[in-house]
């Protein structure tokens, strides 16, 4: 094997150091000067002898090495190391407001569901100047592409498909099904032309079963150091389950997990079994089939996968630091080679695992190593001029801790299920509770990404209540409930109202939440049983509520994000259309229906990736922009107020008690010191009542930011009167009362 061994960090045979690398600063202002590192990825076409796909086949090992991410990362590092331009940006501390100012409103795309022109790739469609002109007109300044690099796995010479929507990455190369690297770079250029930013994904927690994992199985050099994988000696293979024919691994049972823990091989059960499915995934550990390594020894490994079996977890504290090098290399490739301005960190709260006390689950969430790793990733991204955000569904305390030195922004898992609950119950008490808890713990609302729908389910795990504070007592609806009881009550209410026989178009997704689109969620909240036969009145009501939820997310500090499913008003897919995808319990595919954002292919019945087309209530964006009453035009007005007032970078001061349980009031302080109030009605009834907060200064005049009209004045009780229609809302600004002119002596 010496002929194919390369020391970590060395260039591959035939590769060269980067020469005079230049780029167009007009398109990539955040990229350090004189840097455009190039990932290796030499095309290598080996003869394919009829040998085993293991370490005995030198050609096969070489073929894997030439597409492994760790190899690319090593080559990238050599090109960047020692460059003065790597020290030109501050990186120690997150800067959420700078990130929000740069990209305050995001469109979150999902490659598999995006309908394009015939023959047009997903990336080419996202780089279309007409799309960006529409985005700029609406007020969208950021584009989150979703994962577009090669994902899935490798079996023999063949690539296997993704098992989790391309979040099981196996290469730094762009998946050809989505386009080319040149199209990706062109998209970044067009975005910059329209004052926009492209946001890419990295996955710090796991990879797919690609070249890196296959080399790790063969115990090739430091590749096993990428993963949490343990070499089980042959004398203890009796502790491992047999791998079924046609499979490369098998999930171990809870009994096998205990036996392996008792034998000292693994740390045993962890705090959660994400994607739990009886007979499919009952633990977070799987055992590989026997495989011959590059040293000729046959091994069986047990490896950790906090998610699906095809997503082996990365080890952030292995002596080789191979996993760390792989992830950082992937991030730098996106920012410096492809030209993005920001990165999403997927599932980055599960980067540290540790043995706990006897009979206790292993420590796998909220671990200090996760915080340290996130600081390293976030700092590296800032060091090269980008920003990052995390999709971290943990306790509010953990989100606060990781935000201190890690990513610049965090996804709002804090209030997202709470505003859904507020709409279902026409009661904002739980939403106000979550907002106040965030303030008390010290989470800055401006550091959060407040989103409508994304590619996932309506997540309602409420980890803060169900896990971290399950024994703490909270007051809700006049009762004292433990955190666990609060979580169960909210979850059960949402399950009853949003799924079941009355609303069969939505579905439960394991224990995580509910698979639905924003529109299908709203229809269920309204009690609509037949989504295919909506009356005009019902369609209007659905849009009114969709606008209300947009106002909640947009008219507060932080990033506002929405998807193509939101912009076009997509309903959930009939599950029969995606039965092959949901057969193992992943019901989220019903909320990922294909949509034609720009109306370029009205006859298409599916996306180029094969996702069936879903029903659109609002129609394509160009058509909406011609209608002043459309969703896009109504959204445009909200975003214009948001931009002009500076709400996005304001500070949340108060979430006061309300005179009507369906009301929500947010009092924000703008950067110029003025007070702004967002007032929303989560009920189907008109409301007239008093808005009160100790922060409201008596005598101040209250002005509607949408109309510019004065609508009230703050009285001596720090309150003013306001009327709101059903499912209505507004944004207000408070101005000092004009000083009265002093009376003058007429005799003078």
Radius of gyration: 27 Å
**Average of pLDDT:** 91
Q: Specify the biggest β-sheet.
A: 8 strands, parallel, barrel
Oligomer: single chain
Helix count equals 21
The residue fraction in helices comes out at 25-40%
The class by helix and strand makeup works out as alpha/beta
Q: State the distance separating the first and last CA atoms.
A: 106 Å
What strand order characterises the main sheet? 1-2-7-13-14-15-16-22
Low-confidence stretches: 1-34
Entry summary:
The protein has 748 residues and is an alpha/beta fold.
Characteristic key phrases:
30 strands; alpha/beta; 8-stranded parallel β-barrel; 6-stranded antiparallel sheet; disordered N terminus; 748 residues; 18% strand; globular
Characterization of the model:
- Helix content is 28%, strand content 18%.
- It has 748 residues and is α/β, with parallel strands linked by helices.
- The strands form eight sheets. The protein has an eight-stranded parallel beta barrel with strand order 1-2-7-13-14-15-16-22, surrounded by five helices.
- A hairpin with a 2-residue loop joins β18 and β19 (479-482).
Structural topology:
Blueprint: H1 58-65, H2 69-80, H3 96-102, E1 105-108, H4 122-126, H5 129-138, E2 142-144, E3 149-151, E4 153-155, E5 158-160, E6 169-174, H6 181-193, E7 197-202, H7 211-217, E8 229-232, E9 249-251, H8 254-262, E10 285-288, E11 291-292, E12 298-304, H9 322-338, E13 342-346, H10 368-383, E14 387-391, H11 396-403, E15 409-411, H12 416-425, H13 429-441, E16 448-451, E17 458-459, H14 463-468, E18 473-476, E19 479-482, H15 483-498, E20 507-509, E21 513-515, H16 518-525, H17 536-554, E22 559-563, H18 564-567, H19 579-582, H20 621-625, H21 631-645, E23 651-654, E24 663-669, E25 675-681, E26 687-692, E27 701-704, E28 710-713, E29 719-724, E30 729-735
Parallel strand pairs: 1-2, 1-22, 2-7, 7-13, 13-14, 14-15, 15-16, 16-22
Antiparallel strand pairs: 3-6, 4-5, 8-12, 9-10, 10-12, 11-12, 17-21, 18-19, 20-21, 23-24, 24-25, 25-30, 26-29, 27-28, 27-30
Helix pairs in contact: 2-9, 9-10, 12-13, 12-15, 16-17, 17-21
């Amino acid at each position: 094997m010496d002929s194919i061994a390369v020391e970590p960090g060395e260039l591959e045979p035939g590769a060269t150091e980067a020469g005079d690398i230049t780029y167009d600063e007009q398109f990539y202002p955040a990229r350090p000067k004189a840097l455009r590192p190039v990932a290796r990825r030499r095309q290598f076409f080996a003869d394919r002898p009829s040998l085993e796909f293991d370490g005995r086949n030198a050609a096969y090992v070489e073929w894997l090495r030439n597409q492994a991410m760790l190899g690319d990362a090593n080559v990238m590092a050599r090109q960047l190391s020692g460059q003065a331009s790597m020290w030109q940006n501050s990186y120690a501390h997150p800067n959420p407001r700078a990130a929000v100012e740069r990209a305050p409103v995001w469109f979150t795309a999902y490659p598999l569901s995006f309908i394009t022109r015939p023959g047009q790739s997903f990336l080419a469609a996202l780089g279309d100047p007409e799309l960006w002109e529409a985005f700029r007109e609406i007020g969208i300044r950021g584009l989150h592409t979703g994962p577009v690099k090669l994902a899935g796995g490798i079996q023999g010479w063949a690539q296997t498909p993704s098992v989790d929507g391309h979040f099981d990455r196996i290469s730094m190369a762009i998946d050809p099904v989505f386009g080319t690297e040149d199209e990706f770079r062109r998209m970044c250029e067009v975005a910059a032309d329209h004052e926009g930013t492209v946001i890419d994904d990295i996955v710090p927690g796991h990879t797919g079963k690609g070249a890196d994992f296959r080399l790790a199985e063969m115990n090739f050099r430091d590749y096993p150091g990428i993963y949490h994988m343990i070499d089980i000696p042959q004398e203890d293979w009796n502790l491992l389950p047999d791998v079924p024919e046609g499979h490369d691994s098998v999930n171990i049972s809870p009994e096998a997990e205990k036996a392996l823990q008792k034998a000292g091989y693994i740390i045993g059960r962890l705090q959660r079994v994400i994607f739990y499915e009886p007979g499919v995934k009952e633990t977070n550990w799987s055992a590989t089939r026997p495989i011959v390594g590059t040293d000729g020894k046959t091994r069986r490994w047990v490896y950790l996968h906090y998610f699906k079996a095809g997503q082996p977890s990365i080890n952030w504290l292995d002596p080789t630091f191979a996993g760390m090098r792989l992830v950082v290399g992937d991030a730098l490739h996106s920012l410096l080679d492809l030209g993005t301005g920001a990165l999403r960190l997927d599932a980055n709260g599960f980067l540290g695992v540790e043995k706990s006390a006897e009979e206790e689950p292993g420590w796998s969430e909220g671990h200090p190593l996760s915080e340290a790793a996130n600081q390293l990733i976030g700092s590296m991204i800032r060091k090269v001029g980008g920003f990052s955000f995390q999709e971290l569904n943990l306790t509010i305390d953990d989100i606060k801790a990781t935000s201190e030195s890690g990513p610049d922004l965090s996804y709002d898992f804090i209030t997202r299920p709470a505003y859904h609950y507020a709409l279902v119950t026409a009661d904002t008490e739980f939403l106000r509770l979550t907002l106040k808890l965030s303030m008390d713990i010290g989470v800055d609302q401006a550091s959060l990404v407040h989103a409508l729908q994304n590619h996932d389910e309506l997540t309602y795990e409420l980890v803060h209540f169900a896990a971290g504070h399950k024994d703490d007592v909270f007051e809700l609806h006049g009762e004292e409930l433990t955190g666990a009881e609060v979580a169960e009550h909210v979850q059960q209410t949402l399950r009853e109202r949003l799924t079941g026989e009355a609303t069969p178009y939505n579905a439960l997704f394991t224990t995580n939440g509910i698979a639905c689109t924003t529109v299908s969620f709203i229809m269920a909240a309204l009690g609509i049983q037949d989504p295919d036969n909506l009356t005009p009145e019902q369609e209007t009501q659905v849009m009114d509520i969709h606008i209300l939820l947009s106002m909640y997310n947009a008219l507060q500090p932080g990033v506002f994000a929405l998807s193509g499913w939101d912009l076009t008003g997509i309903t959930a897919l009939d599950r029969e259309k995606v039965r092959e995808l949901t057969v193992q319990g992943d019901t989220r595919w019903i909320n990922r229906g294909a949509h034609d954002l720009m109306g370029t292919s009205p006859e298409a019945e599916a996306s180029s990736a094969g996702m069936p087309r879903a029903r659109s209530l609002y129609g394509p964006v160009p058509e909406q922009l011609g209608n002043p009453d459309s969703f896009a035009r109504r959204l445009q007005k909200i975003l214009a107020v948001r931009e002009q007032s500076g709400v996005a970078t304001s500070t949340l001061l108060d979430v006061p008690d309300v005179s009507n349980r369906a009301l929500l009031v947010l009092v924000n302080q703008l950067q110029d010191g003025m007070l702004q109030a967002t007032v929303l009605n989560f009920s189907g009834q008109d409301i007239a009542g008093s808005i009160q907060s100790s922060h409201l200064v008596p005598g101040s005049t209250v002005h509607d930011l949408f109309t510019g009209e004065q609508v009230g004045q703050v009285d001596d009780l720090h309150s003013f009167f306001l009327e709101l229609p059903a499912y209505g809302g507004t944004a207000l600004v408070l101005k000092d009362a004009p000083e009265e002119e002093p009376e003058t002596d007429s005799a003078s």
